[in-house]
Amino acid sequence: EPEVTQTPSHQVTQMGQEVILRCVPISNHLYFYWYRQILGQKVEFLVSFYNNEISEKSEIFDDQFSVERPDGSNFTLKIRSTKLEDSAMYFCASSRGVNQPQHFGDGTRLSIL
Amino acid sequence: AQSVTQLGSHVSVSEGALVLLRCNYSSSVPPYLFWYVQYPNQGLQLLLKYTSAATLVKGINGFEAEFKKSETSFHLTKPSAHMSDAAEYFCAVTTPNNNDMRFGAGTRLTVKP
Question: Per the CB < 8 Å rule, is A104 touching B43?
Fold first, then answer.
């Protein structure tokens, strides 16, 4: 069964550095998402992406964050200048259409030092 | 905006006992509701979904959930717990043509032998 894959599984970065988290969504899916889960807390929606543009974003997704689909397969989340509070598990998801079930990757654990 | 509340951050049952995980939603329009399961160090896996068809929804691994509009609930049940059911369970809600999926805080299910 096709899967969403995320790399790396664990990223350690110094505060203030830029970080890019990578995701390969399921190939015939059209909608892409990023979520984060701070340790011990709920999964929080960050952004959804469709037709090469952001379709929705939450209040968490500020100017520090950006998303991109640089080619036909990858979907990336960039954090420009990381802060300690950005430490979390970041999940990528994709779906075939709006309101269709979202398929999640295994996540990237981001640790900011 | 839509939201869900999961009652009970931790539920413990004996193997073979009934599993009941509670979820109540809030939405100004008819919701779409989902249950996801998260095993340690993994992403979220869809258990089942309700998208305005049958109110009793059957999912994978023997789980089912019933949409009750009068109670604004979407509780998850399984008649007989198995050790492999031990995981974190998340209820989530979205609305038609809306990609902003909101998750509950999660319920950790422990199964005792």
Answer: yes
> Of A56, A101, A107, which is closest to B46 when you measure between CB atoms?
A101
Q: What is the per-residue DSSP string for chain B?
A: --EEEEE-SEEEEETTS-EEEEEEEE-SS--EEEEEEE-TTS-EEEEEEESSS-SEEE-GGG-EEEEEGGGTEEEEEESS--GGG-EEEEEEEE-TT----EE---EEEEEE-
Write out pLDDT tens, residues A21-47: 999 999 989 999 999 999 888 889 999
The minimum CA-CA distance between A43 and chain B, rounded to whole Å, is: 6
Whether residues B99 and A103 touch (CB distance < 8 A) is answered with no
Mark yes or no for CB contact B90/A4 under 8 Å. Answer: no
Chain segment B74-106, per-residue pLDDT in tens: 999 999 999 999 999 999 998 887 778 889 999
